[in-house]
Write a structure and sequence with these properties.
- This protein is an alpha/beta fold.
- It folds into 2 domains: 131 residues, 2-Layer Sandwich (Enolase-like, domain 1), CATH 3.30.390.10; 221 residues, Enolase-like C-terminal domain (TIM Barrel).
- It is 37% helix and 22% strand.
- It has a 7-stranded parallel sheet. It has a 4-stranded antiparallel sheet with strand order 3-2-1-15.
- Helix 9 runs parallel beside helix 11.
- The protein is globular, with a radius of gyration of 20 Å.
- The two termini are 13 Å apart.
- The mean pLDDT is 97.
- The structure holds N-succinyl phenylglycine.
């Protein structure tokens, strides 16, 4: 199959509420959407790189370059036998997993439509609903945090993740735990601590957390292993796991006991599935992270989260948790049992609303073979 055209859309979507992590506060999410055309079919993908290199070195700017100048010209020349081809085609490019993953997602969507199979089925998923949680940014005060947690719990979210940073952890977690003694709770530091902060992180052991996510720098695998040896709470790695190799190293070193799988961070769904397999073989629980995706990226995340090793609820909230307006129809909704339904239609299984995408597009370019 040859591609007839590829369009890149740089969108800037207003968030419903500002989102603050240890690396900063955002009010809008910038992202690149990709549309692939092949005959009468259209495949959509989403690249999770952000506007600045705070979570990873990739940005919408670097991803635009890698897509526009390297991946797209090669993709338009290639006779596709399946999304798997992308790995061979792009093997010479170092890094830039988010740019690759965006294109891979659109190829999967196209492939599913061509074969009339859902992405979930193509990946080997086993469920049509997945349990989900919500990720709560750092709040201005503990009172505000308690109100926010209460609101999400009332909506039916099954587990809550709190963003933390130095000085904004023990008091916050204690207050939430006291108010919600049974709530499955976890925290995410986005690499804000150093090994010397172990004493404060050890204090969190008292609150029966599911996990502490990415406490130290992404390169600090050895330091994470030293920290894990001192903690009862499992460490979960996110930013540190850039491929299945990183996952194997981290597990062999004892740097974590849980892995957050984000296809966008590891170069796509195939690599994400390899990490899932490795973790399954070793009995290590995984869950699907989120990067404030639109409905397009969320559909892809939901599909991978149907694999059997995803035993913990993902950062996969309903559309109305993130955006004033969703770019797909219908929006993703939270079911009364704290799950989200996984689309069963061909490919991503969602109806993309180009009119809405165009409203938020700040840069657009179309390429043809
Ligand atoms: O529900 O999509 C979601 C957000 C989950 O907290 C979340 N994501 O560090 O994992 C993270 C964080 C993130 C958001 C990372 C945006 C990068 C960009």
């Amino acid at each position: 199959m040859y591609l007839d055209g590829i369009t890149l859309f740089l969108i800037r979507l207003p968030l419903k509420a500002p989102f603050e992590t240890s690396t900063g506060r955002i009010t809008h999410r910038e992202a690149i959407l990709l549309r692939l055309e092949a005959g009468s079919l259209e495949g959509w993908g989403e690249c999770v790189a952000g506007s600045v290199p705070d979570y990873s070195y990739e940005t919408t700017g670097t991803a635009w370059h890698v897509l526009r100048d390297l991946l797209i010209p090669a993709a338009l020349r290639h006779d596709w036998q399946g999304p798997e081809d992308l790995q061979r085609l792009s093997a010479w490019i170092r890094g830039h997993p988010m740019a690759r993953a965006g294109l891979e997602m659109a190829l999967w969507d196209l492939w599913g439509q061509q074969k009339n199979r859902s992405l979930r089925d193509l990946l080997g998923g086993e469920r049509d609903q997945v349990p989900v949680g919500v990720s709560i940014g750092i709040q201005p005060s503990i009172e505000e945090l308690l109100r926010t947690v209460e609101g999400f719990v009332a909506q039916g979210y099954r587990r809550v993740k709190l963003k933390i940073k130095p000085g904004r952890e023990v008091g916050e977690v204690r207050a939430v735990r006291e108010a919600f003694p049974e709530l499955p709770l976890q925290v995410d530091a986005n690499a804000a601590y150093r090994l010397e902060d172990a004493p404060v992180l050890k204090e969190l052991d008292a609150f029966d957390l599911l996990l502490i996510e990415q406490p130290l720098d992404e390169d600090d695998l050895l330091e994470h292993a030293r920290l894990q040896a001192q903690l009862r709470t499992p460490i979960c790695l996110d930013e540190s796991i850039k491929s299945a190799r990183h996952a194997r190293w981290a597990l062999e070193m004892g740097a974590c006991r849980v892995i957050n799988i984000k296809p966008g961070r590891v170069g796509g769904l195939l690599e994400a599935r390899r990490i899932h397999e490795l973790c399954q073989q070793r009995g290590v629980p995984v869950w699907c992270g989120g990067m404030l995706e639109t409905g397009i990226g969320r559909a892809s995340n939901l599909a991978i989260a149907t694999l059997p090793g995803f035993t913990l609820p993902g950062d996969l909230s309903a559309s109305d948790r993130y955006y004033v307006e969703e770019v797909i129809d219908p929006p993703f909704a939270l079911e009364p049992d704290g799950t989200i339904r996984v689309p069963g239609g061909p490919g991503l299984g969602v109806t993309v609303r180009l009119d809405r995408i165009l409203r938020y597009t700040i840069r657009m370019e179309r390429f043809t073979g």
